[in-house]
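Lay summary. Proteins are chains of building blocks that fold into shapes, and those shapes determine what they do. In this project we predict the shape from the chain. Here is one chain we studied, written as its sequence of building blocks.
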Amino acid sequence: MERRRVGNVCSECGAKIEGNPRFCPQCGKKLVW
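And here is the predicted shape, written in a compact code that computers can read:
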């Protein structure tokens, strides 16, 4: 079972997400869980 919410990657562009930003720093996709 893989359910990672922290240290995630953007589902849109695949960029590594660090911390808990609201938007992907690379493509700007909204990261809301």
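What the prediction tells us: The chain has a mean pLDDT of 80.
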